[in-house]
Design goal:
Layout (H helix, E strand, L loop, with lengths): L3 H4 L41 E6 H4 L12 H4 L9 H9 L4 E5 L2 E3 L28 E7 L10 H14 L3 E6 L3 E3 L32 E2 L30 E2 L18 E3 L4 E2 L5 E2 L6 H14 L5 E4 L7 H14 L4 E4 L7 H7 L4 E3 L1 H12 L6 H10 L7 E4 L20 H10 L5 E4 L30 H7 L11 H19 L1 H5 L1 E4 L1 H4 L10 E7 L4 E7 L14 H7 L9 E5 L18 E9 L1
Parallel strand pairs: 1-2, 1-16, 2-5, 5-12, 12-13, 13-14, 14-15, 15-16
Antiparallel strand pairs: 3-4, 6-9, 7-8, 10-11, 17-18, 18-19, 19-21, 20-21
Helix pairs in contact: 6-7, 9-10, 11-13
Keywords: Signal
Protein name: Alpha-amylase
GO molecular function: alpha-amylase activity
Length: 612
Amino acid sequence: MKNLLLAAGLLTLAAPSLPLFFVPTHLPASIPAADPNTTDEVPQDHKLIIYQMMTRLFGNKVALNKPYGTLAENGCGKFNDITDRALDEIKALGVSHVWYTGVIEHATMTDYAAQGIPADDADVVKGRAGSPYAIKDYYDVAPDLAVVPSNRMVEYEALIRRTHAHGLKVLMDFVPNHVARAYKSDAKPVGVIDLGTTDDKTQAFGPQNNFYYLPGQPFVVPAGYNPLGPLKGPREDGKYAENPAKATGNDVFSAAPSVNDWFETVKLNYGVDYQHGRAAHFSPVPNTWKKMRDILVFWAQKDVDGFRCDMVEMVPVEFWAYVIPELKKVKPGLVFIGEAYNNKEYKTYLEKGHFDYLYDKVGLYDGLRRLMRSEGSTDDLTQVWKQESRGFSSHMLRFLENHDEQRIASKDFATDPLRAVPAMTVTATLASGPVMLYFGQEVGEPGRGSEGFSGEDGRTTIFDYWGVPEHQKWLNQGKCDGGKLSAEQRKLRGFYKRLLTLAGSSDAIRRGKFYELQDANNLGKQYNQRHLYAYLRYTDQQQVLVVVNFSPDKAYQPGLIISPAAFQAMGIPGTAQAVYTYTDLLNGGEPLQALNEVLEPLSAHIYELKRR
């Protein structure tokens, strides 16, 4: 963490002998019809600041961390651990929405027979705690998360109210593509017919079936699957009674999926006949569509504010075109976020599918990851705004961590959590769309340990009972005061707090247009465009310059240039008579006059322009 003091906000300035910005004295008579440094997109203010927490892990105070440990051994966070103090501190980070991950009841090896929920067969469960994406009952919440398991829904409803009382909105998962093999709803409302109840199991595909079948073939547990390593799981015998076998969640139409497949799940049938050219059968409306609509209405009526929808491209876009408008009739302000990875289909899922936001993983995340690992170039960032999300950047959710990705501080990603300083600044300010923080990211959680089903992979487990060590230092046995954090961790958390608060409050960042300054500066001797990235965000009320240095070990003193076309685009004077000050909104300090700033390694600055 050698550069943390600087990244946290202390500036190193050179003697003010050279101007920070070269301001040309003449403006062109006109600007090109298509300026290559910007787009004609009209930004929309969609700057949600989302805090994702793995609910099972967030409030866990136990630090034993025994591989394959039980709930009693390794502990488990509860809804009630998300206290008023915890929510105050989350809100103070600048957060507007909390995504409670893994709330819906899913398959688990933990026995809740006293509540009518026996442990699932270990042969079709991943991890002692189980995957939160192997849903066992769409109408219930995980008993793990309740202090009193029989009172689990009441405790979740109280958390929703508590979250709202702190001025925060609630997001939760919707997992539309697949369910646990042992899916059976015990909590469904009166009159609801369970998934698969009326299916014709003699048909591999039926337009009104909820599942796909392999008639005449029993399910075969993947060879070599060892659910709990050296330990024995409930009913573990290498067998699972399912005849006929159902298709597996990741579109595997075989009775014997591999151990690398999503074998613990079964694929839901939305009217697409995968085995006959993906023929669509959408009229009449498939039964699965109606059941999923009803499930979403159930949760919307519990006053959640939106859904993060899992693997949306594995479900036909026609379903989303049907269900999202239906839900917005029930609750107009609902937010739908789609986990999407095919950048060629983004517009389809936004426009036809009616999603509010989509993941920007294969574009911005992947480009920033390469830069953080000293493997990429800032050209990757230009590619994102200029092509991949051109015209709809306000609808792309940006992040550097989530439950699927490796931790920044892990040896598998970037090792040093400070490498997030320039990257997270770009993540939060490149456009006016939402930004997401994963719990523990703000204190440099490295995701160390082989938790059980999750091996040593740089991720924080979603399958096992576990304590998250660096996060637990902030949790401080439920005090949520950061009492056990190091000085470096407190400074890192302070950076995230300043950045996210600024992103959520700055007029220019929330709704401003974008103008890249790479072309204006790339001929400068001190402007290494592989490491430096600079751009403007601006409205008629505020203009800011963002400049970051991705180099882990080299400082630069570039003498930045704002081009005449950029001044004209901003609608402010760019003549020599127009003199500006530059206040660093991210790091603080006095307004800067004419000076040549040293951009330290792994640094980020957000300057507000003010005319003197």
